[in-house]
Amino acid sequence: MIQTDVLVIGSSAAGLVAATTGKRVYPDKKFMVATMMPKTLIPCGIPYIFGTVRNSNNDILPSDTMFEANHIDVIYDTVTSIDKNNRTVYFKGEEPVGYDKLVLGMGSTPVKPSWLKGADLDNVFLVPKNKVYLDEMQEKLKTCNRIVTIGAGFIGVEISDELKKAGKEVVLIEKLPNVLGLAFDQDISGRVQQMLAERGIVIRTGISVKEVYGRRKAEGVLLENGEEIEADAVILALGYAPNTGLAAKAGINISDQGFIKVDDYMRTRDPHIFAVGDCAEKRDYFTRKPVPIMLASTACAEARIAGMNLYKLCAIKTFIGTISIFSTAIGNTGFGVAGLTENRAIEEGFDIVTGIFEGIDRHPGTLPDAHKQYVKLVVGKESGFILGGAVYGGLSIGELINTIGIIIENKIAINSLLTSQIGTHPLLTASPAGYPLIKAAEAASSQIMFTH
Amino acid sequence: MIQTDVLVIGSSAAGLVAATTGKRVYPDKKFMVATMMPKTLIPCGIPYIFGTVRNSNNDILPSDTMFEANHIDVIYDTVTSIDKNNRTVYFKGEEPVGYDKLVLGMGSTPVKPSWLKGADLDNVFLVPKNKVYLDEMQEKLKTCNRIVTIGAGFIGVEISDELKKAGKEVVLIEKLPNVLGLAFDQDISGRVQQMLAERGIVIRTGISVKEVYGRRKAEGVLLENGEEIEADAVILALGYAPNTGLAAKAGINISDQGFIKVDDYMRTRDPHIFAVGDCAEKRDYFTRKPVPIMLASTACAEARIAGMNLYKLCAIKTFIGTISIFSTAIGNTGFGVAGLTENRAIEEGFDIVTGIFEGIDRHPGTLPDAHKQYVKLVVGKESGFILGGAVYGGLSIGELINTIGIIIENKIAINSLLTSQIGTHPLLTASPAGYPLIKAAEAASSQIMFTH
């Protein structure tokens, strides 16, 4: 049996960052990572291997290099069980590893719907974070022209857009009334939908798929209204489920929703075991309700907290709940959202106002490369707290949504935001007099003032 | 005599935002703006009229439309004097205006150095915020091929780069050791300098100009070492001085540095008179020392505070000092800085560490349009406060530097930043595991931990 101080299971974003952060903070401890995958994919890059980046070899996390540079040992093998009483992890091939601290970063697996007839046919694909599977899928898709994607969350939307770019005919089917309907309000999801349509993707919302039909191979999908859509391949983008089988078998607490239960320091109830990333339970920042958010960025924040708190608690590093921050791009237009949408806030019972402003992300707006920049803020009417924000515009909104994330996380009230100092430049941002984030804050503030 | 509730002098960023904010918050008050300029230029856009936006007509602030939309009256005339005892402003042509509240947003004028022989020759230009002057200058520059710019602050650098783009031969002369040497540390200013040189601009730093020579017209400049550089035109980009003549004559307090003295609510000592923007005194956020920062974005933040506080003080809207946030771009590379540079922090006596990280602003880095993204944070060693940040990278750094600005302004400590939740996306940002802002925070934090 090998002995280590810290064993991390998983080498994707969560595992990688937990191990490297831990080693940075506790350089004298021996760290080891166990992973099934010799090459770990950058998870959010997966849709882009079907178009823009062309090949999964261009989408590899530099885990190996980082582990080596940080003197972290790696075991390439499958974990078969965890014995938490004896603090030992067992492997398929390698000898067991004894640990002092164990970090579970086992990620998630695509949901394969048991209710969907035909889901096992050939050319019906999931989108797992698995290079071997995806390489084979990509090879098979070469001979497929008509693709149906089921599920218009981020992965479904992104992969559809990429396959369209690669020259395929794509139909995207979503049972909710809007694409990205869980992430965005209708103001933004409507725009995403319009852009996808303009790019030639056929979109069917508000309708369910009843079955995938075909003999051996998928030949099309049957909708609940009896309509048939022919297809050479079908992609199931119906979300992901946490990988918690090993943890459950080991007697580690699992939540009702199927995630590993953790405290604010990412500790399970076993003081020697932490869990981070997709397999760990998340709670909403504003309601403390469990939320099934799976984001590499959230995983990294959690992994940093776990890594720092492995051997001592640094009180200020509590994880104060998940502010889901999503962003994506279609062509040269970016879309982002942080915190609560207007719909979610109202559903949860918050008394809110919204402030909206649409400006231009260069000034003067006649500059080349100028895009509209739209900002919506969701603000607590009595508290003045910013509960959420959503944006679209040029690609710089990827950073702008993080400004809003920082504002939410640090409970900066609307009145402070209103007079915040921001920097502007003709070639980089909107004008100082028309900076959409500040103007949206003004719009929200006016409503609070005049409705009290 | 005309009577108004609020009179704003100036229609550039400061005046425009003071008037429109004031009207939003006090819709029942009568607002009036007095301006000399029928067309106000977007100030930070001025360098770009010489290249990218081609013509000053493409760089006009939409003040007229905004005043009309907000029911704000405008007087196009020159103010001749202010009688603060009788609360009356006198004009060259128009009849006097009586006010209840007066907001001074009179801006600044380029410094014309009395020590520089030949500064009055033809084809020696300043860069005033004056459309008539700039149109004439642009016309004259058409026949000039060899341009010398004296002063490598933002205006000097930007105008040189634009004139080079427009096909001119440009020599940029700076007496400090580095271009943009007041705004950036050597790590970034060195890179700016290298980029400008690669674009064919001849840069001479660490040397002063003794005189501009020529008969009637500038024919070149003589350096302090005796060297001559031939030129068809010379541009003096030596900074700006606040326009405070009228205020001084009216008996309004002026600081030793020549700015109108204001309190945290942008009020002068006369309770009926406010001052905002370039003509108003600014104090550094960290030291409270007066600083000669002139930025449209700062002016707008001040103007919002003045506008909101015209008739009642909303305590939370105090102006807590100026965090200078500068950004600029050369080609597709953006540069930004917020708060204190490393040099300034050390000069001021702060006990600091710095954290630096260079990553890539897309992930995987093989995606098209990926740029390096460099972040440096200056952190108080004992306090953990973030005193400053500087960045360069793709054009999204224009928004990223504002995230850093918000972090500084809200005193978010390094430990909170370290585990901040950020959103990432392959086409929009760096990877979650290698997000430069967080990695720079880690680098700073490690130094604090291991040096205590």
Descriptive labels:
homodimer; 452 residues; FAD/NAD(P)-binding domain; Enolase-like, domain 1; five-stranded parallel sheet; 11 helices
Give your account of this protein's structure:
2 copies of one chain form a homodimer. By secondary structure, chain A is α/β, with parallel strands linked by helices. Chain A has 3 domains: 2-109 and 241-315, FAD/NAD(P)-binding domain, CATH 3.50.50; 124-238, 3-Layer(bba) Sandwich (FAD/NAD(P)-binding domain), CATH 3.50.50; 325-451, 2-Layer Sandwich (Enolase-like, domain 1). The first copy, chain A, has 11 helices and 24 strands. A 5-stranded parallel β-sheet of chain A has the order 4-3-2-8-19, with helices on one face. At the A-B interface, α1, α7, β20, β21 and α9 of A face α1, α7, β20, β21 and α9 of B.
